[in-house]
Amino acid sequence: MVQTTLSPSVTKAPAGDIDIVFVNPGEPAQIYQSLSNEFSAIEPPAFAGLFATYARNKGAGVAIVDAPGEGLTVDAVAEKVVKDMKPTLVAMVVYGFQPSASTQNMSAARRTAKAIKALAPDLPIILTGTHPAALPERTVREEPVDFVCDLEGPITIVKTWEALKAGETDLSKVPSLWWRDADGTVRKPSRPEGLVDDLDGEMPGIAWDLLPMRNYRSHNWHAFDHIHHRTPYAAIHTTLGCPYKCNFCCINAPFGKPSYRMWSPDSVVKEIEHLVTNYGVKNIKIVDEMFVLNKRHVMGVTDKLIERGFDINIWAYARVDTVQDGFLDNLKNAGVNWLALGIESASAEVRDGASKKFKASDIEREVRKIQNAGIHVLGNYIFGLPDDNHERMEETLDMALQLNTEFANFYSAMAYPGSQLYGMAIQNNWPLPTEWHHFSQHAYETLPLPTNHLDAASILEFRDQAWTRYFTSPSYLGLVERKFGPEVLDHVNRMTQMKLKRKLVEEKYAA
Question: Domain range holding 332?
Answer without folding.
Answer: 217-413+448-510
